[in-house]
Write a structure and sequence with these properties.
Number of domains: 1
Distance between the termini: 15 Å
Shape: globular
Strand content: 15-25%
Number of strands: 10
CATH class: Mainly Beta
Length: about 375
């Protein structure tokens, strides 16, 4: 993804955003709108994916977002603490196998790792009986906008100018001025530098969900994973490389598994479940549900995450979606992205056959 000029204004906050914002804008294929099938004038997943592809360029066979990434695998060790709030078998004491993917945003698989401060972690928990829990998380505590329509407008505002190959700072500034809900994200972006390590980041689910307990009661929740790796001395020893994140991951895994704690925050009735730009009060109770352990990394072209769809609406019994309008949109856009890239792979000589379309891809 192109990076706009850091000279943009009209405020000092926007100057920082324009530097990091264009790559971040491409996050949102995961947050696109689904209800467009019957009315051509309405927004659809296809239009969102078209916009992402136009902004980042066409890279056949790759995800339209989070194109640059690495497969990881390991397990989740539940301590049983969340079982009182959800009957999902992933929260019973014991281990659940996990297939994941660490990535940066954008549709360019050759982008340098420092092109955006955003890092993502997607996970698929493989539960007994064929159930799955899939989640896509980012290292920012809030999303940029609250609705699919606003995200689409954001993509249009970030479209590169053909002459400069960079977004127009004035157009981006106008978008943010018209969307005050972006303030919390802009504050985060202003103070965040691109990390050279996936291992030192916390990753947030962003959207709200419901846990359902044995009595059928629904508990509003948000989750994140927090690293056991306490050091943040993650700058590379030598000159920056465009692949610092993968190099660092390989180095750390050679020394042993990496661990994160799955932290589940319980919302109160008054906490919003339909707005990913708003954080819940800090005093809400948080449960440490267990430990995510990553043991191995593998190239995404041949690794186990290659044809996994990290659609967060794929949930086991005991977890349910909320009224967040971004959630249903993610499933449709992921599927559209999957159809495109696997269709392209089918025409690449020597490429591996694509997986069944029901196992669609992280865009």
């Amino acid at each position: 993804m192109p990076t706009p000029s850091p000279r943009a204004r009209p405020s000092h906050h926007l100057g920082r955003w324009v530097l990091v914002g264009a790559p971040v804008l491409a996050l949102g294929v995961a947050f696109s709108y689904t209800a467009g099938w019957l009315a051509p004038s309405r927004l659809s997943a296809q239009r969102i994916v078209d916009a992402l592809q136009q902004n980042a360029g066409w890279h056949p066979g790759y995800r339209r977002n989070h194109a640059k990434g690495v497969c990881v695998s390991g397990y989740f060790e539940s301590n049983g603490a969340a079982a009182a709030y959800s009957v999902a078998r992933v929260f019973a004491q014991g281990r659940t196998p996990v297939i994941g993917r660490l990535a940066i945003p954008g549709g360019n698989p050759a982008a340098p790792d420092d092109s955006s401060p955003v890092r993502s972690l997607a996970l698929r928990f493989d539960l007994p009986g064929g159930e799955q829990w899939r989640t896509g998380m980012n290292n920012m505590p809030v999303f940029v906008v609250a609705t699919p329509q606003a995200f689409y407008e954001q993509l249009l505002a970030a479209r590169p100018d053909p002459a400069t190959h960079k977004p127009d700072p004035a157009r981006l500034a106008a978008f943010f001025a018209a969307h005050p809900e972006t303030g919390p994200f802009l504050a985060w972006a202003k103070t965040t530098r691109p990390s050279a390590s996936f291992a030192t980041q916390s990753y947030y689910g962003l959207d709200a969900f419901y846990f359902i307990d044995a009595a059928g009661r629904k508990h509003p929740v948000r989750w994140r994973v927090a690293p056991e790796t306490a050091d943040h001395t993650d700058a590379p020893a030598g000159p920056p490389s465009k692949d610092d994140l993968t190099d660092d991951l390989d180095r750390r895994l050679a020394q042993g598994p990496l661990r994160w704690h799955l932290l589940v925050t319980l919302g109160a009735p008054e906490d919003p479940t339909n707005d990913a730009t708003r954080v819940w009060p800090a005093e809400r109770p948080t449960i440490d549900a267990g430990t995510l352990v990553i043991e191995h990394a593998q190239d995404q072209a041949s690794g186990p995450c290659r044809d996994v769809n990290y659609d967060p609406t794929v949930l086991p019994h005991g977890i349910a979606i909320s009224d967040d309008p971004l959630l249903a949109a993610r499933a449709s856009a992921y599927a559209d992205s999957y159809r495109r890239r696997t269709g392209e792979e089918a025409h690449v000589p020597g490429s591996a056959p694509a997986a069944d379309a029901t196992k669609a891809s992280q865009p």
